[in-house]
Amino acid sequence: MVEEENLESPKEVVMLENEHKKGCCGWFLTPIFWIKMLATETHWSFVFGVVVVYGISQGLGGALARVGTEYYMKDVQKVQPSEAQVYAGITSIPWIVKPLWGLLTDVLPILGYRRRPYFMVAASLLNGDPLGFLGVTSMLLVSLHGKLHLALAVVSLTAGSAGVAIADVTIDACVAQNSIIHRSLASDMQSLCSLSASIGALVGFSISGIFVHLIGPKGVFGLLTIPAALVFFVGTLLDEPSVTNFNYKQVNEKFLDAGKAMWTTLKFPLVWRPCLYMYLSFVLSLNIHEGLFYWYTDAKAGPSFSQETVGYILSVGPIGSLLAAILYQNALKDYPFRDLLFWAQLLSGLSGMLDLMLVLRVNLMFGIPDFMAIVIDEGVSKMVGQLKWMPLLVLSSRLCPPGIEGTFFALLMSIDNAGLLSSSWGGGLLLHILKVTRTQFHNLWLAILIRNILRVTPLCLIFLVPRGDLDSSFLPAELASKEDEIESPKEAENIELVPLVNSIEDK
């Protein structure tokens, strides 16, 4: 009872503090009190790490990398949109093996540490793109080479993807661990991750088109060494207890134990059923983004948007994601998972009709400019996608068994990434079958219509998702009992970053 009261007390403190603040001042101070509450409960260093990895590295850096890569494939490599879809899928393959990175961080310390070395290794490859484009070494190769062979370019992008995946798994392990220790704050942590990523992406997309125009897509790749350096900085400051007298001969046994724990958990119906829904819902939402991007920038069939305009349009997406995160945090987080996913999936199919109206130029019939129509489309689609993604993240964090949080959360995320990979390749195949090329877009409307219909079909599988809320337990009884044993871990087991002030004073 005492532990439950302590878990709720931080939010109560925030509410009491907010009661003393009125008007606009209260609106501005509320997020500060909320972040202060998270920093107090989970340690400020956890909040700092989330902001760096999700906000600066994946958000801002990922936005720059996405726009730069799209123009690199279109204007430098000159590939067809269906081919660009396939190559984007290839570069995301390291995300499917995320459980391997997660398992390494859980059971194999390097030089006595479980987290710090993996941040540093990831930073040596990382470019900060959440979709996995270009690590530091490979990024510089593409940036400095006049015109790298397409095969080598794809290999470089895939190498960078591994770095992104490792960094993502490491911070995800921290989120999953804290979600178990502070169960009542699980949704707040996911909101922090989403808000950081959305704000970072908003800034990144806003400046991406300008940089692509001024220094070209290859020049943008050179800028991405900065987010990678910050990730390395996080790994350098990470203060975690050193693992002493670790018996590396037991690594194989630990791998087997972790594998058995994962398999035991996956066999539980309330675990594998939502996992199956996650995968199928992403597979059936075919990704045809490259076809739309080529149409956006085409001078004859499309609106012929400039690089700066494309960046501004894409910057609306993070605003939609940000609004979705705020809406979920303040109004939707206590609703059952099944209800939220049902409406999110339905809205996903309906919002796709905006693309259809745009390609058929219906917007011009009503006097709506292309730019305004695409801005509305981008904001609505990203908002709906985020509303679907956030309950899946919270549900995934609640399915993680204690002891292998990073590994199992990575497994769940790899299932989603496998679905996204299948979606990308399926969308590329659809574009190829319908003969949508760099200059031919006659059947693009049909590809959009087929995609929208398939987006609604997962509603037939919604019964696979449990109706429980964030306080429900979905783990087997034997695993739940182990979870109770780690509700109050030793302070030395907490993941912390060394305070910046102390590091400066020590010099």
The CATH topology label is Growth Hormone, Chain: A
Flag low-confidence runs: 1-8, 127-135, 483-507
Strand runs, count: 2
Q: What fraction, in percent, of the residue positions are helical? A: over 70%
N to C succession of SSEs: HHHHHHHHHHHEHHHHHHHHHHHEH
For the record, the CATH class is: Mainly Alpha
Can you tell me the number of structural domains? Answer: 1
Rounded radius of gyration (Å)? 23 Å
| Gross CATH architecture | Up-down Bundle
Shape: globular
Main sheet properties:
2 strands, antiparallel
Beta fraction: under 5%
| CATH superfamily membership | MFS general substrate transporter like domains
Number of helical stretches of at least 4 residues: 23
Q: Give me the secondary-structure category.
A: mainly alpha
Q: How would you write the strand order of the largest sheet?
A: 1-2
State the distance separating the first and last CA atoms. Answer: 45 Å
> Mean pLDDT across all residues, rounded?
77
List the helices and strands and how they pair.
Layout: H1 2-19, H2 23-42, H3 44-76, H4 81-91, H5 93-96, H6 98-107, H7 116-125, H8 136-144, H9 150-181, H10 186-223, H11 225-237, E1 238-239, H12 251-266, H13 269-283, H14 289-296, H15 307-332, H16 337-351, H17 353-359, H18 362-365, H19 370-398, H20 405-433, H21 444-456, H22 477-485, E2 496-497, H23 500-505
Antiparallel strand pairs: 1-2
